[in-house]
Amino acid sequence: MSKDMLISWLRNQQPKLEKILCKSAEEYYGLNVSQRNFSYCTKQSCQELWLLNDGKDLCYDRPTIGFSYSLWYHPKRINTFLEYFTDLIYASLKEGSIEIFDLGAGTGAVQWAVGLIIQGLKELRLQCPKIRVINVDTSAFMISYNYHFLWKYFVQEYPAAQDISKNCDYQLNSWTNIDSGNYTNIWICASYLFDHSDNANEIVSEFKLIIENYKPNKVILLSSYHKRKHCDAVASELRKLNFNSYLKTITQPVFSGSLQQLYSFRDSISQKHNLNMKGIPSWNIDSLYGTVLVNKTPVLNLDFNSLKIFAQPEKDRSLIRMSPQQLDAATVYGRPTLIIGPAGCGKSVVLTQKVKNILESTKIGNEYNSNIKILLTTFNKELVNSLGDWVEQLLDKGKFTRHYKNDFYGNRLNYSYIQFKNSSQFNIYILHFDVLPTQIGHLQALRVAPNGTDIELFHFDLMQKAIDIYIKTHNINTKGIEKILDPDFLLDEYHRIIYGYECNKEKDYQELERKGRGNNPQLKFNSKRRTIIWGIVRTYLESLKKQNMESFVIRRHKFVKKLRKEGFNQKFTHLLVDEFQDCTRADYEIFYQLLQTPNNLTLAGDIAQSINLGAALHVPRADDQRMGNFSKKLLEGSFRLPFRVSECIKPLSQIINTKFGNREGFQSNIISPYKGAPPGSRPILIYAKDSSNAAMKITEVYNAFKKSLLLDKHKVTIFERDIELARELNQLNTPAEIEIILRTKGLEKHCVVWSTRTKIDTKGEHEEFIYTIFTRTVSLLIIVIFPEVPLLYINILKKLIPERLMRWDEETEIKYQEFISTESIFHEEEDMDTSEDNRVFEEDTLDTLIT
Which of 617, 636, 655 is the C-terminal boundary of a domain? Predict the structure, then answer.
């Protein structure tokens, strides 16, 4: 009888609840209607809500989504949960306390349902357990709307519910990545959680980990009827974990009818802002599928650490939790190992763990083996210091010393050395690859550019001068060979082919298959074109030698020559390389010469991020005697990249995958969205007329997400070098910096902006460059297009999934629709080598120039 009284009391609350919904919406509207983008954002939010009606997935990442959702779906969800939780709580009245995790909390419908039940029990003078609701969702805007508007007015009407949720119980987090807390009698409610596009097996395995970690006494699975297979799959697996399950069918919902007062408000703002809001909101429940599972052996008083919001990139390596796949890749197998995975899969984490595993497996007693000598190297200068920090954090305290060197001005350099306390030598070298010739090979470090001069620009200009000198000296007609007279092409040709394949004579170069360099320009074997290229490169090298200067590639070229001639006496026991996609064949020769045995070589990288070498990168051949028994370890999923970003750029990843093809059994990775990735939004597209307009819109985005994603601790990072845009942002007090992807590859940034008006300095690797820029973010990715956006970039943007690319405002939407509907196929003009065979080659070697 008492339960019927409770249901009767709940039904009488229907008018009050509608009043709360209206007051919340009116306050939000009053505070935000003056925002420049309010009308467009709200209209798009309302349109996207129709996806739920079709059983499809909604991104919940527009600033107005909580407001729009509350005007239609929030009352339906309350009605859904009331009968479930009335039954469950009423059956648990004698329990002391209950902790409810609402995974996929949205605007807090579970919290409202539980709050109503608690108020009703109090007014009916019935015993009630102490209940706490922890709201967990990946949408900052849904949780924020609940906390700042809905719940504020709710507790004014129902004060008995005040204590069921505190400030810390609104957690922006991935539901698969929740840290534990100090809880008792846990219930987990997974409400409308299962995306229609999710892999059912993946959902089951991830949800099982939550259940095994938290050991809940009850699990409530609620979703739309369209997604029932996911509920059934999870329920089936949980029954194996000591759970009984039963289906719950709602025959007569607590509330019924329409919400006329809410409709009046909706209709009013819809007409005023042309929002096209249709229909009358009601309490009626849409298609629903629900399962309740009960633990056969209740567990109480679990002692955990405190719940934390979503994980920012962890700086303390010892605190990073590794997946089973990562742990396997870090295992010491005594075989050459290649670790391949997409951006954000944890390759660097695996390498540092492997360093620790090597040391642990070679300990003598409780001490590190003083004969161990490890080289950990990467092609990313900024990453070197982080790798050193991570290794230091993993080692036994008090058993080593970390050493640094200073530059000419006394500033500490990024690279470092670790020496064990019981050792007379450095035992771990953590070095950038470009310093190996000087720090290990003891080569003299010549200047790579005059003081105060941009290194890349200096060598570009020097190569251009070499072109002019060679053409004039040999009286060459340049018509038809313009493409081979490009300084960028020639610098790459020297790096990727002449150095990469250790061509010492023109004959070597003339007879070489130029793998990965494409056929535009076309260079036939034994051709005059190759003679011209060889001659210009020699002129470039001669010019540097006269000035007693070099480039980093020349330094590596000298190093490999020295190693081949003299060998290396103090060989390393183990060598680990990050970013192996930047390795040429000559670089591998350096590795082999430095190591005692190739069996202790470990390489990690992502072929899709080959922006230094493009398709000319070298992957070890299966028939190479030194790497023939290699072990291949694949890492899947991006733990760092926001889920929606991974979804959006997946087609670009597939294009790169096809472009590279299968290399000796290795394929570039297709990015795989990972449910446990940090919260964020879809990539956000902005159209701007100029820098000032772009800065204003970027600032709008930054401010909208700043608090929830903790962006106020980080700068907006602009790729590539759009100085004017950075200046405009800083004038608006939006902290901004410029970066180049070659310097930050392998590192994370919190708010990434790709300015499409800045040139990407590459030939033929635009997809790889742009993909690498996109995958730097851990929170926000903003793409800015200007009136003169290059056709090549438009074609790449057209490859992104439209539903996963948020257009920020109406102006952007119009421009986006224009360029996706316009024929914009970019055809690069072919360049055929029509020259006759050239059998007269120079006999001089490069020995005198590379010494």
Answer: 636
